[in-house]
Amino acid sequence: MSASVLYDYPGPKTRARHRTYSVVTVVVLLAAVVWFFWRLQDHGQLEYDKWEAFVTPDYVRVILVDGLLQTLKMAAFAIVFAVAFGFVFGVGKLSEHAWARWPSWLVVEFFRAIPVLLLMVFIWYALGIKADNSAFWAVVMALTLYNGSVLAEVLRAGVLAVPKGQSEAAYAIGMRKTQVMMLIMLPQAVKIMLPAIISQCVVALKDTALGIYVVAPGLTYVVKQVYLEFHNQVPAILVVGSLYILVNLLLTGLATLLQRRYVGEKKQLDVPMVGNAATRPKTIA
Fold first, then answer.
1. If DSSP codes are grouped into helix, strand and coil, which group holds residue 212?
2. Average pLDDT value for residue range 8-19
3. How confident is the model at residue 23 (pLDDT cuts 50, 70, 90)?
4. What does the radius of gyration of the chain's CA atoms come to, in whole angstroms?
5. Is the pLDDT of residue 237 over 80?
6. CA dihedral 43, 46, 47, 53 (to 10 degrees)
7. Where are the domains positioned within the chain?
8. N or C: which end of the chain has fewer CB within 10 A?
9. Backbone torsion region of residue 218, taken as left when φ is above 0, otherwise alpha when ψ lies between -120 and 50, otherwise beta
10. Cα–Cα–Cα angle for 191, 207, 77, nearest 5°?
11. In the predicted model, what is the mean pLDDT of residues 93-97?
């Protein structure tokens, strides 16, 4: 009965109308794809000489090794450092001590407000534009500071979203604040935060493309050298865009798999822990 109240099953006319909408949508999408490729052909963007670099082994190796691999390295460093940064300053914003809370708040709000590109340029000049790997680390540090600040706020929100009864039950059985935070609050907050963490990892990976403005190694920098030689900007954009989409889909799939496994285990282990401990009868010696 609750299903019929909350949801009305579509009748024959509604189902027919939905099928019509679906067919029209597919036709429109196919027409858009055909028009797109027709425009490419009309402007000579599908000719072999425009795509030759992307099927030549030497160029493909440079794109994958000097481009994609460097992009993944920058993203991996930035994500790991950003998670650590977000943990430290997120916990700092939750501190009851003003000397830890207010500096953490200032750092997080400051780096959340600065555009990532400006941060990259500033760090690049601070490290020395002629120093070895300065552009690489400028991208990593800029993405760490920005995404770490966002993750700090995500962590704070995740901890505050945990039901208050969890911490109260932990305090009732004699746990200290550090134990409550590390053993009770954070494990449950991580489940709440995981979708936001996954999204922020994707953002960090995409923002490595801005490294082209500080001459950092990566996909955008390498592909720029290719299209300057072959004058094939449109195919180059399509290729680099497809690589970013593919890598982001793989990253999202991996993170989602980890989320399902983690949440599935924590549902059985973490949530009952405090309640069982609080309600367990004490043994009198």
1. helix
2. 84
3. very high
4. 26
5. yes
6. 120
7. 50-278
8. C
9. left
10. 65
11. 84
Model pLDDT for residues 63-72, shown as the tens digit of each residue: 998 899 999 9
Q: What are the CA-CA distances from residue 37 to residues 31, 51, 55, 223, 233 (Å)?
A: 10, 14, 19, 21, 15
Calculate the CA 106 to chain-centre distance.
Answer: 23
Token pair of 230 as six digits: 């072959």
Q: What does the DSSP 8-state code read for residue 54? A: G
Distance between CA 210 and CA 213 in Å, rounded? 6
Over the chain, what is the mean pLDDT?
84
Reported as half-sphere exposure (CB side, CA atoms, 13 A), residue 157 has a value of 12
Which amino acid would we find at residue 257? L
Q: Return the DSSP state at 162.
A: S
pLDDT of residue 5: 55
CA 113/CA 169 separation, integer angstroms: 38
Alpha-carbon gap, residue 198 to 203, rounded angstroms: 9
Residue 44 per-residue DSSP state: T
| Tokens coding 15 | 């189902």
Length of the chain: 285
Q: Residue 226 is encoded by which pair of tokens?
A: 């290719």
Give me the pLDDT at residue 263, please: 62
Both structure tokens of 56: 């030549």
Residue range 160-208, pLDDT digits in tens: 888 888 777 888 888 887 788 888 887 888 877 887 888 888 899 999 9
Domain 50-278 grouped into CATH 1.10.3720.10? yes
Q: Write the DSSP string, 231-273.
A: --HHHHHHHHHHHHHHHHHHHHHHHHHHHHHHHHHHHHHTHHH
